[in-house]
Structures are given as C-alpha cells and as structure tokens.
Write a structure and sequence with these properties.
Chains A, B: Its EC number is 6.3.4.19. Two copies of one chain form a homodimer. The first copy, chain A, is α+β, with helices and mostly antiparallel strands and about 425 residues long. The first copy, chain A, contains 15 helices and 21 strands. Helices cover about 40% and strands about 20% of the residues of chain A.
Chain lengths: ~425, ~425
C-alpha cells in the first residue's frame, strides 16, 4: 500500500534516510498516517506531542492515545504540557498563534537537546488548497497563495503532495485509528466549510485539479523568488542603512516603474498597507509620516526615512507666539486671552510667565514623564499611554508640547499641572490644536 | 442609481471623458448595463455587435435587439457577420478562440476606420473571479491568476471593479432588458457551475471577499511586474541575439538561483513546459534538443540555442560505415548483408555502390524532396509530412539520412526509390534505427 510515499521519499527526500526524525504528532488522521508510513518505510522516527491543555479530558485522551501508539510501534514519544491560554494572554496573541509559537519553540529545543535532524509535519495538498482559499477570501499577496515549501530548513512535509483522500484511503485499508480533534472551532468551521462545500466542487472542475493546483503553487513560488531577487537588487541600490534607520532617495524611487509595484514590494515587508498614503508621502511636505503597525516612514526633504516604531526618528518643531511653522505636523494657534472662557475640546490655557519661548513640539521618548493636570505628583508618560489604551500607532502619532524640555501638553490629551493658570497669573495664553 | 460608476469614471478613468468610445456589445446583461451607464453619464458611445452566426435565429434575434436598443438610446450601432465555424476550421482553433480573434480584429478596424479612441468591454469583478478559478483548476502561473487590467492600451473595462450583483441590481431597478445568451455551452457550463455553486460559498467565507480578491489580484499584478522587470534584466545580460536564434551560455544559467525559477521565467514565454527535460538538457550531450510547441532548445557544447521551430538550427552528423557517432541524435546500425532477410520495422536495405560515405544525418529544410520508395516520381517532403499528418514537433524531430545531399531515408518512415537494392546490386547495406 501507498508505494507513492516510498517513491517520493527516495526520489525527492532521500536526504531523510538514516537521519533522526521527529514527527510532529497531534494524533489526528494525517500525523498518524505519516507515523505509520515512516515506520513502514524503516525511517528512524520519534513522536512529539503537544498537550495544549485546551480541551480538558479530551487533551489527556489524545496524550494517552499517543503514548499507546508509541509503545505499539516501538518508538519514543515526547510529550509536553503547555499553559497555552496563559501564554496567549501574556503575549497578547490568539490562542492559535500561541499554540503555534509554543509548538515550534519546543520542537527547536528537542532538535537541539535530543539530537534530531529534522521535524516532519503531516501537511498535505488539501491543507495547502484550504489555506490558499482562506487567504484568498481574506485578501493576500503572492506569499499567501504560493503555499508552504516541502522542505524549509529542518522542517520537512513529506505528505505535501498527497491528497487527504489518499491519506484516508491508506488509513482505511490498514485499519489505522486516529483521534478526531474538536479544538480550534472557529478555524475548524472555516476549514470544514471549505473542505466539504468548496473543495469538492473545485475538484469537479478538472480531473487533476489538485495536481494542477500544486503545479500552480510551484510556479507562484518561482515567480515570487524572481521578484524577491529583484527587490534585493533594488534595495541594494536604493536603501542606505544608517544605524536604526534606512534612507531612501525619493528621486530614485520615482524612477522605478511601475511605481506601485515597487512601493508594494519594498515596503510591504515593513507592514505598510495604505498605499495611497505612501504615494502621497512622496510629494508631501517634509515632516509628514505614514505608519504601519511596526514601522514609520518619514518624509524628510528629498529622502524617506524608514525606521522601527520603537526607534523612530526624533523630530522637533519650534512653536512661536504666533503659532506653528508650516512644516509642523500639528497646527497650533496661540492667542493671549483675558480669561479661560470658551474652552474647546483641544484647548489649554497656560500661564505665559511659566513658559520659555519658542516652545518645542517633539515626539515622546523613553523616560518621559509629566505632572498630569489635576493630579498630585508625576506620572510616566508610558503609564499614561497605557491607561489611555493607546495603541502603538497612536503613541507614535502623539506629539508633546514642551518648554525647556518639560512637557506642557500631551497635545490634545492632557495638560501639565506645572504650567496651569493660577490666581497669580498675569498673562494667559490659550493654545488650540487646529489640526 | 449607481453613482459609483460616475465616481469611478471621474476618479480613475477621467481620460475617457470627451473621447469617442465603442462599446463591445453582445446584448447580454453586462454590456447592456454598461451602455446604459455610459449614456446616463453622457459619454459618447456607439455599439459594436458581432453576429457570429453560431445560434441561427437566436443570433439574429440578438442583432435585432441591439439595433432597437441603439435607436432607443439614439446611438450608432455597428454590426458585423462572421463565418466563425469556417474561420475556426481554417485556423485550426476552437470556435471560442476564433470568435475572440474575429471580434478583436474587427474592433481594431473600427477604431481605425471610424476614428474611435477606445473600446469598452463589460467585464466585471465576478468575471475575473470565475476566470481565476477556471485557470486555477487547469493549472496556471501568476499570469493566469493576476487577472486582466482595467486599462490595456485602447481597451478599457470600466465595470471591472463592480460585482455582478451590483450590475444586476442596477438593471432591475431601471427595468433594463437584456438577451440571455445560450451560446458557448461548454464554457458556459463551467462558468455556471462556478457562478452558482462555488462563488457564493467563497463569498460566505468573508464579508468583503470580492473586494479582497481584487486587492489580491492587484498585488499579484505588482509582483508579476517585478518578476518581469527582473527577467528583462537577466535576459539583457544572458541572451545573445543572433539572427533567428538566441544563444545562452549554460555556465551563466547555472549561476542563477533558484535555477528552476529562472528556467521557468526565461523559457516559459517560449512555450516550454517540460522542466525536467530542460534541466537535463543543461548537462546533456551536445546535439540534444527539447521542444515546445513553437520553439526548440538545442544544447550545443557550452551554450543553449533557442530558436523558433520554423527557423531552427540546422544540424548535420556524419554516418560512417561503422555507424553513427556518440553525439548523433539517432543511433543507426550499418551492416553488410547477403540478402534482404529479417527486415525489421525501422530497417532499410540499400545498394552500397549508390551511396557516398560518410552519409549525413540532417534536419529537413524548405524545398527538400525525395523519391518515395515504390512510387514513381518525386515528392516534396513538406507534402509527405502533411500526408503523414506529422505535427510541428514531429517534423522537427524528423531526421533525414542523405548521400550527397540526396535523401536516402526519411529515417524510420520512408526509403528513397533511388538507392534501393536491385538485381544488379553487388553489396547490400542494412541500416537499422536503434534509437
């Protein structure tokens, strides 16, 4: 039965022969069949089973099943328990992401400590097709359509070119038992819908649909490789790496055609997705910025400066009594007033004598603190941001109005106690944020 | 109704305003709605309707409908009749290909003669998704997945970002009538299956599936553009253009990584699809060739020679009394025999005295003729090939055994009358094709 597997190992994955192999083993159909095939093919394997403690007794039942199968097949079994939910909460990621992270971390450890050469996973062609369809429905680029490689470093997927049908037929013919997994309901719902309602219809369109799909993915991987090589060359020419930032001459960018394709190719890896904003930035005034979740892109004269959000470029703009200069990222109106009447939403009133002009607008820095208006004592700005539940991007977009580098105003959010108008105040300055 | 169309024209296709536009008009839902939208948007259009004469009365009914709609909307109608089936037969293409060819030829003529600036077609987002799925099921590369552009030269598809649902809703709301097309049953079967059974399920996976799909196609187009630019640079470095052929140094090719990706990218445009054969060619003996439907790729020492099949490289190999040399593309065994016994399938018997050694194995050339064994008189080789129903590739693979440049044997197929064994023959040579 299933001579294709033996042939495939010998023709394409012969480097696995004689190596110490660790099979990522959930206990589900695919991993059970993979383990049986490897044993039947006299490959030296052990099983690695993650107990994510997500399904109570069922998780423990899986673990028992794995241990029994290990004894039956005469192979070692490694089991690790994870507090997946806790990890997900701590890392602020989904349970699914957490499980994935924990799994691969542990596999890496096992490879090192136990001296395994490769980890085998049981992904098959239908998995690839389902992932393709999920990514297609969500919107993606070539990376979401071209699939996972059969060999990626020390991670190998020997079943990748086989169909679920073939795997199931093998299990049936050999009376192989496996555990049904009830976990991961949401993702499972999506996959089940694709598996049972969409994929069978797709397969009806062409007798060798799945094979054709695999060839398509291979071609997409190839095109992706060409585009990647090209981008490496273009980056090599255009990107000037300086400490924590990358400078790109706008003139050089504008020579690339089609510009959209290059902006996407060069900047998508840094998380940028708002291409109209990025394009406008090329012709915007100095000081304008566009943010991704992880990076900032600053226009500074004739260059763009790309930097990670946590080490982005510090900027400063002077604020004079007659207001902010044209290039300032926020527009402030300053006016002397007699009283604190007509406060607007983004307005503060300050004691002019306490200020040292020009004031300065700047980004926040690590260690910044201020004395929140109406409170006693000082507060770390990072704590204030956290209490306000600002996300990374909002934090980056936050400007501080300072006098002698003391924070006067967390602009638009909170004034400082130190500069407030008091009974003794002679001149009141009203500052309003216009943009 | 449908202000999105007006907005889309003004934002993205403003260059159409004030131009003379020809709407490719079948009379089906999509083209009827497009015509109405253009008229409502005060664009200057005429209708171009192809009567392919494929559906008898129904075709004529479509034509009547188009003429009536033209009068009603007060716009010109161009109609052309085509003998589509005949054209398809003559050109040896499918009826669908023929219709497509005829349609675009005629549009080009109308543009020139009648002074239109652009042709508008009514392709919409669901069309793109259906085509994507058809190509996916058949196997494709990025070109089959990245979709058609909205603007391609003088061909514009203003509905490309709208869904069938939106178009249908517009038709319903405005009581617009259209003709149902019963043609093209096979393709229609496939599209209907996709439209009714697969696409609705895909759209259930994500609330903005169609929009996401369009963004995905845009990204694929961008990646394709990058890969294409890269291949242009690589070609510029590696391809030496010499008259009708292109020479590529094998050493240069072997430096490219990943090699598979480059072979695919560089040679797929010439129709090659058998990548294992192409890869083997790099390390094969001189004289080996791989063929696509249109091109040949010849290994010649340290270069590959790429040429169109109808002007492929002429090759010659000597044939000595003791047989063919190692590098010969076919292996012939020559032996003196006493009689014409034991004839095998690929054997001829010749009168040695009539031959001039070394014989020569060569490709065929235009103007070649021979005297087919058993016939009176000569025959053009091209006529012989036609009668034998040889396709292009088989013709290219056909070798001729010649003596003093006279054809002795169309190898493996037909001997020549002139060199046959006769009563007067002193020495008989038996030649057998081994490979």
């Amino acid at each position: 039965m299933f001579p294709q597997f033996k042939n495939h190992i010998n023709n394409n994955l012969a480097f696995l022969n004689g190596k110490k192999l660790l099979v990522a083993f959930s206990g589900g159909l695919d991993s059970v069949v993979l383990a049986h095939l490897c044993v039947g093919n006299k490959m030296e394997i052990a099983l690695a089973h993650c107990n994510f403690n997500l399904r109570g007794e069922e998780s423990d039942g899986d673990e028992d099943f794995v241990r029994q199968l290990g004894s039956k097949l005469g192979i070692s079994v490694f089991v690790e328990h994870f507090e997946t939910k806790q990890f997900a909460e701590d890392q602020r990621v989904s349970v699914q992401m957490a499980a994935r992270e924990l799994r691969y971390q542990w596999f890496e450890e096992l490879l090192k400590i136990e001296g395994f050469d490769f980890v085998l996973t049981a992904h098959h062609a239908d998995d690839s097709l389902e992932t393709f369809i999920i990514n297609l429905s969500r919107g993606t680029g070539i990376e979401g359509l071209s699939g996972i490689p059969e060999v990626n470093g020390n991670l190998v997927r020997p079943l990748l070119e086989f169909s679920r049908e073939e795997i199931l037929a093998y299990a049936d013919a050999n009376e192989i038992k496996w555990r049904e997994d009830s976990s991961n309901a949401e993702n499972k719902y999506l996959r089940n819908k694709i598996r049972h309602e969409i994929v069978p219809k797709l397969k009806e369109l062409h007798p060798s649909m799945l094979q054709n799909f695999q060839n398509t993915q291979k071609h997409l991987q190839q095109t992706d490789a060409l585009a990647t090589n090209h981008l490496l060359e273009v980056k090599h020419k255009l990107f000037q790496y300086e400490e924590d930032q990358i400078k790109i001459k706008i003139g050089d960018l504008l020579e690339l055609k089609p510009l959209d394709a290059y902006l996407y190719g060069l900047l998508n890896p840094y998380g940028f997705t708002e291409w109209n904003d990025v394009k406008h930035l090329l012709h915007a005034m100095s000081g304008k910025q566009v943010f991704s979740k992880t990076h900032g892109l600053l226009k500074n004269r004739d260059v763009l400066i790309l930097s990670k959000l946590n080490n982005r470029v510090q900027q400063e703009f002077p604020v004079y009594l007659d207001g902010t200069p044209a290039e300032s990222p926020v527009t402030l109106k300053l006016e002397p007033v007699r009283s604190m009447q007509n406060p607007e939403k983004k307005t503060i009133f300050l004691d002019k004598e306490k200020l040292n002009f020009p004031l300065v607008l700047r980004n926040w820095e690590k260690g910044d603190y201020f004395y929140p208006f109406g409170m006693k004592g000082k507060k770390k700005l990072s704590k204030f941001f956290k209490d306000e539940k600002l996300d990374l991007i909002s934090k980056e977009k936050q400007w501080l109005l300072c006098s002698n580098d003391e924070i006067v105003w967390v602009v638009g959010k909170r004034a400082d106690e130190r500069f407030k108008v008091e009974d003794s105040t002679q001149e009141i300055i009203k500052i309003t944020q216009l943009t």
